[in-house]
Every structure is written in C-alpha cells, then in structure tokens.
Automatic annotation (TrEMBL):
Keywords: Membrane, Transmembrane, Transmembrane helix. The chain crosses the membrane at residues 31-54, 85-107. This is NOC4L protein. GO terms for biological process: ribosome biogenesis. Residues 43-192 form the CCAAT-binding factor domain. It comes from the Eukaryota. Pfam families: CBF (PF03914). One of its GO terms (cellular component) is small-subunit processome. Belongs to the CBF/MAK21 family.
Length: 254
C-alpha cells in the first residue's frame, strides 16, 4: 500500500524510466494490476505500464476491457491525464478482432458522457468515435439504424451496466452526437455533423487534439478576423434613424 501521491509519482515514470531497465519486467505485473483496480487517476496512470506488459511480455488480463470501460466516467474529459488515457484507449481499441458489442459499448458510453464535456474535449472525442466506426464497420448500425432515434420510445442502452456485453449498446443509436450538432460552439457542431455523411476510409489524426485546451480554443476565436455585418438597411438620419421619423426634424446625430 502506497500513499496516493507516491502511487501517482511512481506510475507516471514506471513505463519509460523503470520497466525498460528491468531484467524481468513481469515482476511488476501484480503491482500494476492492483494499481489498475484502485480506480480514478491511479488506474489511468497504470495503463501505460500494463500496455507494455500486455504487448511485449504476454500479460493476460481477462477483465482488462471491462475495467477500462468502467474507467469511463464524467471526469474523464476533465482530468489532467486525459491525453495519455485516450492515446492508450485508442491503441487498445485498434484491434479488428474486438467484438462489435464491446466497441459499440465504448462508443455509446463516450457519446453519452460527451453531453456534459467541454468543447476542447468534444473536438477530440468526435474524431475518436469516427475512427472507431472506420475500424469496426459492424458498429455503424448505431448511426444508420432505420428510423434512427425517432423510432425508439426510449434508449435501450443501459449506462449503469458495468459489463459491456450486457449494456445493449448495439440496440441503440447515437442520438447524443445528433444533439451535439446543435452545440453552442460552431466547431463542435461542424465536427458532429460529419456523421451525417459517409465517412472516408482514412482515419483522422487525433494526436494534435489530445492535449487541446480551453485556452487554445479561446485564443483561436480571439484571433479570428471580424466580419462586418450590415445591421441597418436604411441610412441613419436622426435620433432613431427612420426616414419619416418626426424626431429627425428636431434632432440630429451630427
């Protein structure tokens, strides 16, 4: 048992400053699996080390995806380690051998949580979801279901279900992304509208979006060139500006 602060410091450097220099990195299996089960930021940070053990040292973790699915909560779009988490999640969901129900559950849960996410996170997660559709065509039924959300009296997806196979995600539709097409931020609405069209086969590069911040979004908006918009058809001629306004006979803007 380690203090939370020490756990985080160890896990942040473990994957690149410790494991590569160990003769037997598999000795860290128990430590990393226990850390992965703790939850919260500690679980997120344990993903790096687990990724190395799974891909390079044949670690078998039967409930790995179930635990990864459980890490998806509203805080995931706000945490300090968001970029690291989604980079690894993107790798874990890249295999074409994953069952459709599992990928659909991730897509649906990410979409539901996106309803309360900040714009900078949405501009990353929408292309992320589009990439999942490109890799797993069987999940496109969520977008192209006949009738869409209009034919559903209620959403069959069970958000509270911890087991992805029992979440009924494949029976649902992505009404959440359709809702984001009316988002107050124009860039988010534009990104969400992509799902109305047929997706290209080339995946979107999300590496530059993983660490997008609210400051960068604001700075981008501030630097946009202002467009002059005509607000008055008739030229202003008096206090209230109308051609036959009686005030124009007695008052002038000069």
């Amino acid at each position: 048992q380690l203090p939370t602060g020490l756990y985080k410091k160890v896990l942040v450097i473990l994957h690149d400053s410790v494991l590569p220099y160990m003769n037997e990195p598999t000795l860290m299996m128990d430590f990393l699996t226990v850390a992965y089960g703790i939850g919260g930021a500690i679980s997120l940070l344990a993903l790096n080390g687990l990724f190395i053990l799974i891909h390079q040292h044949n670690l078998e973790y039967p409930d790995f995806y179930k635990k990864l699915y459980s890490l998806l909560d509203p805080s995931i779009y706000h945490v300090k380690y968001r970029a690291r988490f989604f980079h690894l999640t993107d790798l874990f969901l890249s295999s074409s051998h994953l069952p459709a129900y599992l990928v659909a559950a991730f897509i649906k849960r990410l979409s539901r949580l996106a309803l309360t996410a900040p714009p900078e996170a949405l501009l990353m997660i929408i292309p992320f979801i589009c990439n999942l559709f490109r890799r797993h065509p069987a999940c496109r039924v969520l977008v192209h279901r006949p009738g869409g959300p209009a034919d559903m009296s209620e959403d069959p997806y069970v958000m509270e279900q911890e087991e992805p196979s029992e979440s009924r995600a494949l029976e649902s539709s992505l009404w959440e992304i359709q809702s984001l097409q009316n988002h107050y931020h124009p860039d988010v609405a534009k990104a969400a509208a992509v799902l109305n069209q047929s997706l290209s086969e080339i995946e979107d590069d999300i590496s530059g979006l993983l660490e997008l911040s609210a400051y960068e979004l604001f700075d981008k908006e501030v630097k946009k060139k202002a467009v002059d918009v005509a607000l008055e058809f008739e030229q202003v001629r008096g206090l209230f500006g109308k051609k036959n306004d009686i005030f124009a006979e007695h008052f002038s803007l000069d």
